[in-house]
């Protein structure tokens, strides 16, 4: 397989996925990855982390189908499915081909936090071998949307 560079889908502070307050993500049940604690702003834009096709799509989460059968999942906040899309605006449709850096979703970390939910965002390489991922940013570092985040071999 070729090495695939994944960009940060949003701006914030990089955290280990083990710090996500949801065992499905924290324990790697769906795959390895990293988490981003978003900037506490009223409106934030989420970008495509790589070239691909939008697979599963919800206001609070999306799966991006990449080359060579790989899929990346980006989940905006924890338990945000309960918001039923409120505070999230989709800019793409399922099945749409996107390029790295394309705008996919806008959301409000401030509103999510105000509703009592955690804003941390898991970025997960679905079904990947943990050794296949290389984090390109140190834990605790701040990234901007579009910055290099992970290499996936």
UniProtKB/TrEMBL annotation:
Protein name: PTS glucose transporter subunit IIA
Any single GO CC term annotated in Swiss-Prot or TrEMBL for this entry: cytoplasm
InterPro entries per UniProt: Dup_hybrid_motif, PTS_EIIA_1_perm, PTS_EIIA_component
Domain of life of the native organism: Bacteria
Kinase listed as a keyword: yes
Species: Cellulomonas humilata
One GO process term, biological-process aspect: phosphoenolpyruvate-dependent sugar phosphotransferase system
Keywords noted in UniProt: Kinase, Phosphotransferase system, Sugar transport, Transferase, Transport
Subcellular location: Cytoplasm
Keyword Membrane tagged: no
Residues annotated as domain PTS EIIA type-1: 22-127
Gene Ontology molecular function, alphabetical: kinase activity
């Amino acid at each position: 397989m070729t090495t695939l560079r994944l960009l940060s889908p949003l701006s914030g502070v990089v955290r280990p996925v083990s710090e996500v307050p949801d065992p499905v993500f924290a324990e790697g049940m769906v795959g390895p990855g990293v988490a981003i604690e978003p900037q506490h702003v009223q409106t934030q834009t989420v970008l495509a982390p790589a070239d691909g096709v939008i697979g599963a799509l919800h206001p609070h989460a999306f799966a991006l189908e990449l080359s060579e059968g790989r899929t990346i999942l980006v989940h905006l906040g924890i338990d945000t499915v309960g918001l039923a899309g409120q505070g999230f605006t989709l800019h793409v449709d399922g099945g749409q081909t996107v390029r790295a850096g394309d705008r996919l979703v806008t959301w409000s970390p401030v509103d999510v936090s105000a509703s009592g939910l955690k804003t941390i965002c898991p970025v997960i390489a679905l079904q990947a071998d943990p050794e296949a991922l290389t984090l390109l940013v140190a834990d605790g570092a701040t990234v901007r949307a579009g910055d290099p985040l992970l290499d996936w071999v």
